[in-house]
Amino acid sequence: MKKIMIITMNASDYDNKKLQTIREKYFTQTELAARLEVAPETISRAERGVSASFQLLSAMTKECKSSIKEIILDNSANIALH
User: Rounded distance, CA 5 to CA 3, Å?
Assistant: First the structure.
């Protein structure tokens, strides 16, 4: 059985304002939520820097033709970015 580690991040780990700016170029929160099959509140929490999993941030940036590397802050450099 493969183990999956879920890393929860907040505004001290990623630039939530930049995440919002990237998303706004392509989608509304509701549109992106539908594409990722999550609640709009999930997108809102991520953009406010409250909490988001690494997987969600990765999916959000990928859907917006970007990379999670663009929003991760230096203090999170110990996380392996793929």
Answer: 7
